[in-house]
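## Example pair
The file below holds two records. Each record gives the amino-acid sequence first, followed by its C-alpha cell line.
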Amino acid sequence: MRRNLVVFLNTEFYDPIIKKKVKVGDFKWGVYAFFDYDGEPIYIGQTSEKLRTRIRRHLTNQRTDAVAMSVLDPFEVLEIQVWPLPQFQEVSGKSKKTKAYIDAKAHLDALENLIYRQSLKDSQFDAVLNEKDPPTPTVKVKVPPSLRSRIVSEEVHKLRSHPDFRTARRAQIIARLAQVISEREVQGGLRRVLVTQAKRLLWLAVRRYEALGGPTSVKQEEEGEDDNDGS
C-alpha cells in the first residue's frame, strides 16, 4: 500500500494557474475521500498543509485521531479521491489572520461540506465514518476536477477483499472503538461512528451468509442430539 500510495501522490495533475502538471500530492490545499472495497465513501477530510502529508499521516501511522481512536481503519481503504485547489497554492496555511488565508479556508470548508454531503447521498448507509460534521459553508463553490485511484495491489486485494477477512477485521475495529468509548467521556460523533460501523458489519455478515445459502446452509439438529456436548 505504501508503494502504491507513493505512485498515487506522485501522479501528475494539471494546474491551470501555472499551466503545467504538478504532482497531485504537492498541492497544499484540497479535500480528499477514502473508499472501501465496496466503493463506499468512508471518510472525508481537508488539508492546507499538503495532500501528501495529510493522506500519508492517515494511512501510514497512528498520528491522527481518526486512526488512533479506531474511527478509520487504513486496512479498509481501497481507493482515494482528491480535489486539489491550485488557486490557493501560494497561500500559507500558518498565517491564519490574513485575508488570503480566510478566503482560502472558507472555500476549503465549503468544498469539504459539498463533498461530504454528496458522499452521504452516494452511501447506501447514508453515513461516513467522520466523527465530526464539516464546517457550515459561508461561500458557494463548485466541485473542481479530481483524481481517483486504487492504492492496493492485486495480491493484497485478493487477501483483504475476502468477506470473512473483512468481517473479522471490521469486528476487531468495532471492539477497539467500543473500548475507547467505554474508557473516555466522548461526544456523540464517536457513538455515531460506532453505530455506522455496526450497520456496516451487519450488512457485510448478512451478505456473506446469504451468499453461502442463508437458511438452507444451516443444519437441522437430529432428534435426541445434545447441542451442548460440543459434538
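Second record, same layout:
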Amino acid sequence: MCGIAGIIHRTGATSVGGEMTAMLQALKHRGPDSTGFALYGTPDQQSFVMRLKVAEQEELRKGFRIHEQVKERIELVDSRFAEMGAKVTKKENATEYALRYHFTYGGDMRRLAEFLEDVESVEILSVGHGLELVKDLGDATVVSDQYSLSSFQGTHGIGHTRMATESDVDIRSAHPYWAFPYNDVSVVHNGQLTNYWNSRRALERKGHQFKSNCDSELIAVYIANRMDEGDELEEAMHRSVDELDGVFTYLVATSDSLGMAKDVMAAKPMVLYESDDLVALASEEVSIRAVMPHEIDTYDPYEGEVMVWKS
C-alpha cells in the first residue's frame, strides 16, 4: 500500500525534519516496515553533503567480525575520498553503518560515486548541495530519532512509508530514491510501472546506473535524465506521464522545487493543501493535519495532473 508525503515552504527554512516526521508517522498504517526522508536544507553551492551506508542492519547481527569489516569499509571510503581529491570537511556517524560527509570537490561526481561504491556493501543514498536522504527500518519516529532528524532545518522535503510486498525489508529496498549521480534529485512513489524494464534498459543504454529493482528509482533517473538533456522539471514530469505506463502518483524534489504527478487513471490517492506560505500533500489528509491542526481545505489533484512549487 505504502504512503507518501511532502511539504514545501515559500518563506524560508523551518523545522522541516520535525514536520516530515509527524506527517510520515501519521501514515504508519500504510507502511510500517521502513521509512525514508529526503530533506532539503539551505543549499551551499561551494560544498556537497553525502549520505551513505556501509552495511545493512541484518549484517550486524552476524557476529563480531562484521563490526571489524564495517570499520574497514569506512577506512576505505575515507581513503578513496582523499585519492580522488575530495576534501572532507566534516564526517559524522549517524549509526554504526550510516555516515554523513560534508566535502568539497571539483571533479566528476559520477567517477567519485562509482569509486566509493566499489567498496564492498557501500551504497550512496544521496549527494547534493542541499539534499540529505535518510532511510532505515522502522516507523517515522524510530528513524527520525535514530538519525536526529526532528531538528533538521530546511525549506522542503518528501518521504515514504513502506509496506514490503515484493522485495526484502532492508535499506536498499526502502524509499526515497536518489537519481545517481545527479545532485539534489529525489523521488517517492506510490503505484506500479508496467514498462519498468523497457524504460530502464533504455536509460541504461544511455549510461545510467540503477542501484535497485524498484520502479521508484526509475522515475528519479528518468526525471534527472530529462533535466540533464535540457527539460525544466515541469516539462520532464509531463513527459513522464506520457511515457511511463502504469498507475502511479509520485513526488519529486530538487534543490529548490517540489513536484507532484498523477497518471491518467488517477488510481493512487493524493490530497493537497496550499496556502500563501506553504504546500503540503500526502496519500491521506490525516498526514497533512498532523502539521496543520486547524481547519483547512484540501482537494484531490485531477488525473494526469502535474504541479510544481518553488521554495
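Notes on the second record: Residues 64-83 form the longest helix (20 residues). Residues 46-128 form a domain with the Alpha-Beta Plaits fold (CATH 3.30.70.1110).
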